């Protein structure tokens, strides 16, 4: 091929095994005008960039990050291949399986960048899109993928006492995953997901009371996801669906609510913006644990993220947009330590950090570890 200016690591076609090459092609969403896609990966095999190569394009420019090892793989548009199903003995797979893989060291990366400095391609992929595509491939391999942040804060300190809290320093952690249930539901690119998030507050330093879990919030979600890039709109993707959240406590401490939500996501280079709005599904007044929860949680939230080299900052804002001006502010910072392990610092101020304290203003700061971002 004319664009084989690098040695290629055939990761998607070789590592992931039987039948997954078709899934890879489907996830990459080739358009009729695309010749191929170029995937740039780091040494942990996380996708850093997905670059579109158009029909008739003669030159290609790669913006390489400052990394000890980078890998590049070219995935050709299956519409340009034989119409027969891909098989282990196909000429195309044999061709790629025999391509030598090679690490691109800093020196060779610099040489490469100089060699293609005058080339160009349609557009850079945003950091959000790179994460989305990486997680889709991870989902194909593991069966599930990250949803929200997964983290452990061994030290999380609140500056005002919360319900059930005997020690103001405790552990806090969150587990959040999603599973693609049906892709191309009803029409192309409309995907249907199940997601599950659990956030727990653990009084691990309360030896006198056997280190109890102060509270856990459980949040199952069913939602649709659809890309919007082919439309002339601001957002790159829209998610919409149903979410339930509850704390599983007994009658007096029980908190729960059900919502329908819609979320638009926009990404540009190292910046990402998410705007989510929700509608609470009404409950019987005799069974409603928290009838005024919207007065504190509002009707939506704004999320912002920005990456500076290896540093990632995220900000989440909520407000009830009423005269009493109740809301929440959460700032996160992460920095890589080793492979998929990151230093993680979290600051929260406002209402709704947990369901038990949805109507109490809380200020808290924690430090620990983030797993995959």
Automatic annotation (TrEMBL):
Gene3D superfamilies, A to Z: Phospholipase A1
Subcellular compartments: Cell outer membrane
Catalytic activities: a 1,2-diacyl-sn-glycero-3-phosphocholine + H2O = a 2-acyl-sn-glycero-3-phosphocholine + a fatty acid + H(+); a 1,2-diacyl-sn-glycero-3-phosphocholine + H2O = a 1-acyl-sn-glycero-3-phosphocholine + a fatty acid + H(+)
Enzyme class: hydrolase
CDD domains: OMPLA (cd00541)
SUPFAM superfamilies: Outer membrane phospholipase A (OMPLA)
Co-factor requirement: Ca(2+)
Enzyme Commission (EC) number: 3.1.1.32, 3.1.1.4
Keywords: Calcium, Cell outer membrane, Hydrolase, Lipid degradation, Lipid metabolism, Membrane, Metal-binding, Signal, Transmembrane, Transmembrane beta strand
Membrane topology: Multi-pass membrane protein
PANTHER family, sorted: PHOSPHOLIPASE A1 (PTHR40457)
Family to which the UniProt record says this protein belongs: Belongs to the phospholipase A1 family.
Quaternary structure and interacting proteins, as annotated: Homodimer; dimerization is reversible, and the dimeric form is the active one.
Protein's name according to its UniProt entry: Phosphatidylcholine 1-acylhydrolase
Species of provenance: Helicobacter turcicus
């Amino acid at each position: 091929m004319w664009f084989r200016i690098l040695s290629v690591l055939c990761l998607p076609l070789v590592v992931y095994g039987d039948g997954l090459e078709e899934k890879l092609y489907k996830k990459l969403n080739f358009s009729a005008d695309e010749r191929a896609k170029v995937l740039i990966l780091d040494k942990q095999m996380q996708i850093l960039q997905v670059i579109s190569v158009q029909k008739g394009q003669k030159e290609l420019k790669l913006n390489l990050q400052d990394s000890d090892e980078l890998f590049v793989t070219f995935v050709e548009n299956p519409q340009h291949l034989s119409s027969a199903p891909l098989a282990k003995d196909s000429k195309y797979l044999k061709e790629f399986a025999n391509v030598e893989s090679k690490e691109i060291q800093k020196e060779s990366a610099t040489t490469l960048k100089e060699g293609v400095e005058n080339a160009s391609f349609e557009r850079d992929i945003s950091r959000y899109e790179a994460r989305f595509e990486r997680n889709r491939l991870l989902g194909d391999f593991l069966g599930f993928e990250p949803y929200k942040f997964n983290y452990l804060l061994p030290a999380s300190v609140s500056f005002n006492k919360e319900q059930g809290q005997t020690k103001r320093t405790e552990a806090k952690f969150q587990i959040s995953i999603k599973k693609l249930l049906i892709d191309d539901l009803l029409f192309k690119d409309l995907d249907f997901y199940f997601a599950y998030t659990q956030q727990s507050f653990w009084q691990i330093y309360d030896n006198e009371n056997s280190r109890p879990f102060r509270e856990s919030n459980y949040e199952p979600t069913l939602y649709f996801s659809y890309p919007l890039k082919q439309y002339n709109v601001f957002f790159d993707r829209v998610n919409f669906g149903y979410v339930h959240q509850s704390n599983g406590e007994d009658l007096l401490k029980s908190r729960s609510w059900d919502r329908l939500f819609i979320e638009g996501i926009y990404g540009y280079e190292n910046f990402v913006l998410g705007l989510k709005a929700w509608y609470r599904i009404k409950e019987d007044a005799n069974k409603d644990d928290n009838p005024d929860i919207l007065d504190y949680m509002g009707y939506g939230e704004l999320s912002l993220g920005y990456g500076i080299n290896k540093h990632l900052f995220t900000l989440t804002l909520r407000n009830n947009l009423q005269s009493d001006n109740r809301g929440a502010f959460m700032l996160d910072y992460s920095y890589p330590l080793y492979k998929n392990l990151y230093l993680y610092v979290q600051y929260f101020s406002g209402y709704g950090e947990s369901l038990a304290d949805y109507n109490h203003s809380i200020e808290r700061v924690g430090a620990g570890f983030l797993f995959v971002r």
